[in-house]
Amino acid sequence: MRVWVNPDKMAMLGVTASDVSAAIQAQNRQNPAGAFGQPPAAAGTDFQYSVNAPGRLVDPRQFEDIVLRAQPDAALLRLGDIGHVQLGAQTYTGFNRVDGRDSGNVTVYLSPGANAVQTAARVRKYLDQIKAGFPPAWTTWSPTTPPCS
């Protein structure tokens, strides 16, 4: 995610880059879930309640809803109030070439708890499905046989 903030709005509202960073870290973490009232529980505990914790944020709108500050009157200052968020590259400093020509690169990261073998199979299946839309030079390419040797 790329977070684009307006420094003028930040200064006017008294928000620092550290405030933004801390809020993102605090509200975009993976928290373990569990249950209340599960054994061993105190005598007389008749009910067990499951706890569902949302995972990491994945959508720009979810990031824009991160609360930076809550006022005593219940007004909230959100990240979207001082800027906007968009899905972007992790870095813009690299480029890719295959056989001396510009090419695209896709990096796949596993989510926590994901199965690497199943993920690789799903990526290969998806690439086979979209291969028809690739440029002509890539029509013989398959996910198991990279175009560069």
Descriptive terms for the model:
flat; 28% helix; two-stranded antiparallel ribbon; alpha+beta; 17% strand; single chain; 149 residues
Question: Could you explain the architecture of this structure?
Answer:
- The protein is an alpha+beta fold and 149 residues long.
- It is 28% helix and 17% strand.
- The chain is built from 5 helices and 8 strands, in the order βααββαββαβββα.
- The protein has helices spanning 7-13, 17-27, 60-64, 79-82, 116-130; strands at 2-5, 35-36, 49-50, 67-70, 76-78, 83-86, 96-98, 101-103.
- The longest helix is centred in the C-terminal third of the chain and has 15 residues, at 116-130.
- It starts with a strand and ends in a 19-residue tail after the last helix.
